[in-house]
Amino acid sequence: MTVETLTTVFGWMAVLNLGYLMLATAVLFFMQNWVVGIHANWFKLEPEAVRAEHYRFLANYKIVTLVFAVIPYLALKLI
Length: 79
Prior knowledge:
3 helices; mainly alpha
């Protein structure tokens, strides 16, 4: 596998993951009451606990995306 191929793979992986992160953030921002209501009902949790879990999910997903997709892409672009 060449450096160009790896750069392309990590680039598309970063684009897809960042796109999903933006979509999830927008959905949770604009339809928060609806999403919280569904998840609170499904998992029998308090709405505040669901909001905290959503915030934790977005934070963890952002960190994982940066570490495993964006940073390797940028490192490969520097080569």
